[in-house]
């Protein structure tokens, strides 16, 4: 596993924990919790699934200044409290300054989310 260069302050309880980190690839796991639940049936709010996928995309680029510019996503199946979600992100192509990352999220090997994330690496931190 290579060293993590970006998003080092992320909460592992809200966005997941890196399991694998390699050049152009990342795998991040998230154990869903009661804090993520949207209703009395235990439905996990999609924002947490998206956050997991976004975090995995950032780690696949693994540059200190990487930011998300756009995303095209699909929610394929609902998730509930207690599900363990695994996001797999792969840098699939580069178009000039754009880095396109494909992310899939599974629960027990079943797809629950997929997306294409367009990332950019500005020359300095976006808050500078």
Number of helices: 2
User: What is the CATH first-level class name?
Assistant: Alpha Beta
Provide the structure class. alpha+beta
**Fourth CATH level, the homologous superfamily:** Hotdog Thioesterase
Indicate the percent of residues in helices: 10-25%
Give a verbal description of the structure.
The protein has a single domain (12-120), classed as Roll (Thiol Ester Dehydrase, Chain A), CATH 3.10.129.10. 16% of the residues lie in helices and 43% in strands. The chain has two helices and six strands. A six-stranded antiparallel sheet has the order 1-2-4-5-6-3. The longest helix is centred in the middle third of the chain and has 16 residues, at 46-61.
Features:
single chain; 128 residues; alpha+beta; Thiol Ester Dehydrase, Chain A; six-stranded antiparallel sheet; 6 strands; 43% strand; globular
Strand and helix layout:
Layout: H1 12-15, E1 17-22, E2 25-31, H2 46-61, E3 67-75, E4 84-95, E5 98-107, E6 110-120
Antiparallel strand pairs: 1-2, 2-4, 3-6, 4-5, 5-6
Provide a quick synopsis of the model:
This protein has 128 residues and is an alpha+beta fold. The protein is built from two helices and six strands, in the order αββαββββ.
